[in-house]
Specification:
The complex is a heterotetramer, with two copies of chain A (325 residues) and two copies of chain B (326 residues). Chain A has helices at 5-30, 45-54, 68-74, 78-86, 119-132, 151-162, 182-185, 210-225, 254-261, 265-275, 281-304, and strands at 60-62, 109-111, 139-144, 167-173, 176-177, 180-181, 202-206, 231-236. With 325 residues, chain A is α/β, with parallel strands linked by helices. Chain A has one domain (5-313): Thiamin diphosphate (ThDP)-binding fold, Pyr/PP domains (Rossmann fold). In chain A, β5 and β6 form a beta hairpin. The radius of gyration of chain A is 19 Å and the shape is globular. The termini of chain A are far apart. Classes of the chains: A alpha/beta (325), B alpha/beta (326). The structure holds thiamine diphosphate (2 copies) and magnesium ion (MG) (2 copies).
Chain lengths: 325, 326, 326, 325
């Protein structure tokens, strides 16, 4: 998979957009501005940007609780996403969903499922719709090393395989499910090994190397698009922050974190950009600044937006409100 | 009008809606060439080979397929073999299809959720505690879900067609002991909307609210009591969610007495909601305390000797009616 | 007597029962060194390293481990992180632990089932629709299951100890917004049996039946109303299954009026059972229709702006009480 | 694994006991004497007898709906089991459970779970109890090719592996889950392949060859007993009868059935017995007659037994009846 220089630059910008957005969310949460629970994807930008690179318009992508950043690339405007985190009426979900449920189905951005595992069966319905409607599109579901141990994932993978659906299961092993090391939640090192039990291909790739991510996703997505059926792609990565904001992370060592900070996916892409002479440090700074400005604007938009008002809470339960509950 | 069974009524509803809408899909365990464990989907796979699908034994897989397809606008009509398996599929009813539209803040743009889960209810086949239950009570406190619980071939067909044409998640409870029961059904196309409680028999002394098999037992009880000069009104809610409170309450206001009849265990029974709504809206019209004639608060025994005692009988209903009449 | 929080009360109950009985096991996601998502099991792993176990994210695995261990006579005390996940684990409550003794025909020989599932309930943390629910209503129609739903540190500690010493499956609902709430707890060992509704405040004009957070809101409402000369009796059922009908009904017989307060959506709410039992047993004592002050029939919104409106407030309770007083 | 001649004879008798009992149940069901649904294990006797051979007193064995026959070997008397099928008060479960729930926990006979998949998590609780009580015993769960696709099985296997429990998962691939061929419910030929996804050993063996069954189970059971952790053993076999009695089996061909009738496990053991000169045809007939007599007695016992009466139905819900529901 050859990635053009222009695309490398785009990937770089996208990764910074996610990073900046997430760091802003962290700051705002620490200040008590953002309500609820919030799970940030700082450190995991490469797999998000690389996965986004491989999808096509019309594809359906279900993210986990840690990838609302990816929704930005899929098409939720930074303002609408930030407003959703604030719980504002201008949010992508009118403030009803928050970080965990932000979505934009028109753009194939399905959002996250608060019940781990359930999304990995639901994705088959999307894949099935693409298949019977012959859209040529695929359905992709992203979930963690922790969620991978839910039974629904097993049923989802087997059904996708038996029905030969255009579905790709992306497992993100970021080392932990809250406090549990992925080394303790499964005795196999690579969760992609489970794919064999359903007769489908499974690969494990470096999730902090955006080019490796593109390689792995483009192959799996191509197979699915061409009728070759489902597969599993696993990325090894690490979350720089706690499970949720406020998590004191007593379960991991400073050394471990430092080791992973050195593998920071943005640093690694910068090295590629410099090595290949794609852009220089000054241009990098400019790109970073651009993304920062987008996040500033998003925050401003969210800040001045109104909260939803009473009657709004009543809608969106049934297709049409029939005057009864 | 023709006389057909409940099983035929369901089968016709499915076939007709599939013919009308090329995006209706039926799937579940053994629903294809085998025709379903109770024969209800017989012949459909022949008629619509690509739209009737056997699945592995994976109830959460089935529900997930249904949910995702429905979110994409397909009309998904999954079956679980016994309504007892609702426990296995619960998360999808409780946290998924009933909440997605709300959490997404997306009414009504594009994001439909036309999903009708068919689930066979009920005791009477000595299938023991895990294959004999009526499970509607477990779903009563879930906003965003609709619950159909019909009793006659006419209602089965009309409500199933209505449900499939809708855009909301529905659990459609069938009752195994009704599959063979016959009734009149029109030749032409028709639907029965939800929230349309049906007065199956008019009467003046007492209202009996009953569902599924119990509607038939209540009607038989009413017939016997008529000979004794007691006039029983039998009301079938047909859907529990949404619930047609008006029809139910005005019947009770008229008769002043109510007996609630449902097969499931009495404690926490789905009709507790109905009974309390009656107390809320018609307290001063009640001449006697509402009375429940429901199943006992224990699992359903296997042996026919005990199962027969477990299931609410016509006689139990007669005794209940006499009790509220004082 | 000491003042401790609900979280401490639970923690002490667990530690004390583990010290008393070497076959008590605690397990779930992040309950070990991490101390649980809400800090409730903090320190237990240090005290009992082999008997406090972190599990993978596998709610059915957790429930299966609990069930099998309990059938073997161990005392299994699993946690699910949010009571919303009861949908995922439902089959085990609905078809397994509540039915096994009956289906096996085996009372009381050997086949105990001492299992206490701890499940945190409730809204108030802007955690959105799938992490904010009170889920007791889903379990009301399951014979063989017991449901605890305490409100004060005293009750939390006493009921949890009672539950762990018992031999039946219990779902023990905690409420997230109560974890930090303080109250008096004795120094010595004590238990609070189930089916012992507690009159948290005596009064004569109206009975308020409330659970968990709503008990505290009802007490605050009662205090305000006392200033207006209105005397409110607040009754906390403490367990929903078994239910102490006697205490509840005699309170209503005394006051003649009842308001039912629970956080979950009103339709199909667990208190529908309580309300209907009141109508069944005390119809002629009721001077006004029973009234429910419960959550709205829609999923719980994320945004604090709407969540605040969603949750029943002290003011809602005051308005409800005034309404039944006419 | 060497099996003595005496043991071969016992295995032979045990297989006939199951066969005779099941055939009697089929006859009684056809006559309308037995109520409910009934799933028979005719054709699957070798895996039952062989598995029983490898267990030890104190082990916990959970069977599926098709192995009530195995309960006879575990210690439910034929009379008590037949009475249970009749729904009589003298049944193993006082008539409350029937074929599907017959059990005798004192003997480690856990019975079947009517909810497919759930038993494969519950077995871990038994294994856990054996482990913490240091009994030296193991917990074994038996389930079908169909049930194997339930998500709970996935959670159960992973948890057993992570906790290193003395649990063995026996998958019985008898070709079908009701009408669905096991070829259609999974794209992998050997379901034991799934074991690798949990880092545990998985083997597939000929379930109609009692010696192969003993080989496979004794190894897996030994590993579990010795602290080596869980494993998967899969048996390939075939059910001669329909899924439930009354099933017209439109989904399978006469040829297929005939092919498998030739592999009848009892015939195969007879060949071994004759080849090895263990017993002659006359002795075989005697053994068969003995088992038939046992089944006759069981039927007689069940026939004359009373049905349970009213108040009995009220017991067994809670540990002690507290006078409230
Ligand atoms: C069924 C279910 N169980 C538990 C949770 C609580 N929970 C939310 S995130 C999380 C950890 C998830 O870990 P992983 O899948 O590895 O994703 P990560 O947070 O590492 O991105 C847990 C236990 C949940 N939401 N759903
Ligand atoms: C969760 C669940 N889904 C469906 C069923 C209905 N059911 C009972 S047996 C059976 C087929 C099981 O096939 P398999 O596991 O291969 O066992 P076999 O009958 O072949 O012995 C089905 C679908 C059930 N009991 N539980
Ligand atoms: Mg993780
Ligand atoms: Mg099978």
């Amino acid at each position: 998979m050859k990635v053009s220089n222009d695309d490398l630059i785009k990937l770089y910008g996208n990764m910074w957009l996610i990073r900046m957005f997430e760091q802003r969310a962290a700051d705002l949460f620490a200040k008590g501005v953002l309500p609820g629970f919030i799970h940030l994807g700082v450190g995991q930008e490469a797999f998000m940007a690389g996965t986004h690179y491989s999808i096509k318009p019309g594809d359906s992508i279900g993210t986990s609780h840690r990838e609302h950043g990816l929704l930005l690339l899929l098409g939720i405007t930074p303002g609408a996403l930030m407003a959703e985190l604030y719980g504002k009426a201008t949010g992508s979900n009118k403030g009803k969903g928050g970080s965990m449920h932000a979505c934009l189905p028109e753009k194939g951005a399905l959002g996250c499922n608060g019940i781990l595992g359930s999304a990995q069966t639901i994705i088959n319905g999307y894949g099935f719709a693409h298949k019977v409607r012959k859209t040529g599109n695929i359905a992709v579901t992203i979930f963690g090393d922790g969620a991978a141990n839910r039974g629904d994932v097993h049923e989802g993978m087997n059904l996708a395989s038996v029905m030969n659906l255009p579905v790709v299961f992306i497992i993100v092993d970021n080392g932990y499910g809250i406090s549990m090391s992925s080394k303790n939640s499964s005795v196999v090192t690579d969760l992609s090994a489970r794919a064999a039990g359903y007769g489908m291909p499974g690969v494990t790739a470096d999730g902090n190397d955006v080019l490796a991510v593109i390689e792995a996703t483009s192959e799996a997505f191509k197979r699915a698009r061409e009728g070759g059926g489902p597969s599993v792609v696993e990325f090894k990565t690490y979350r720089h922050r706690g499970h949720f904001e406020g998590d004191p992370t007593p379960y991991r060592s400073k050394e471990e974190l430092e080791m992973w900070m050195k593998k920071d996916p943005i640093l690694r892409l910068e090295k590629i950009l410099l090595d290949r002479n794609v852009i220089n440090e000054k241009q990098m700074k400019d790109i970073k600044a651009e993304q920062l400005a987008i996040v500033d604007d998003a925050q401003k938009f969210a800040e001045v937006s109104p909260y939803p008002e009473g009657p709004e809470g009543y809608g969106d339960v049934f297709y049409k409100y029939e005057g009864r509950d | 009008m023709r006389e057909i069974t409940v099983a035929q009524a369901i089968n016709e509803a499915l076939a007709e809606e599939m013919a009308l809408n090329p995006e209706v899909y039926i799937f579940g365990e053994d629903v294809g060439d085998f025709g379903g464990c109770f024969g209800v989907t017989a012949g459909l796979k022949k008629k619509f080979p690509d739209r009737v699908m056997d699945t592995p034994i994976s109830e959460t897989g089935i529900m997930g397929l249904a949910a995702g397809g429905a979110y994409m606008g397909l009309k998904m009509v999954p079956e679980i073999m016994f309504s007892d398996f609702v426990g296995v599929a619960m998360d999808y009813l409780f946290n998924q299809v009933s909440k997605s539209r709300y959490m997404g803040g997306m009414q009504p743009k594009g994001d439909v959720c036309g999903l009708v889960l068919r689930a066979p209810n009920g005791a009477g086949l000595t299938a023991a505690a895990q294959h004999s239950q009526c499970t509607e009570a477990l779903l009563m406190n879930i906003p965003g879900l609709k619950i159909a619980i019909p009793s006659t071939p006419y209602d089965y067909k009309g409500m199933l067609k209505y449900a499939i044409r809708g855009n909301d998640p529905v659990v459609f409870f069938e009752h195994k002991m009704l599959y063979g029961v016959k009734g009149s059904v029109p030749d032409e196309d028709y639907v029965v909307p939800f929230s349309s409680a049906d007065i199956k028999l008019e009467g003046s002394d007492v209202t009996v609210i009953a569902t599924q098999v119990m509607v038939h037992k209540a009607l038989a009880a009413a017939k016997k009591l008529a000979e004794e000069g007691i006039s029983v009104e039998v009301v079938d809610p047909r859907s529990l969610k949404p619930l047609d409170t008006e029809t139910i309450v005005s019947s009770v206001k008229k008769t002043g007495r109510v007996v609630l009849v449902n097969e499931a265990p009495v404690f926490g029974n789905a009709l507790a909601e109905v009974g309390l709504q009656i107390a809320e809206h018609a307290l001063h019209d009640l001449k006697a305390a509402p009375l429940r004639v429901c199943g006992p608060n224990r699992p359903i025994p296997f042996t026919p000797a005990l199962e027969k005692q477990w299931i609410v009988s016509e006689e139990d209903i007669i005794n209940g009616i006499k009790k509220v009449l004082g």
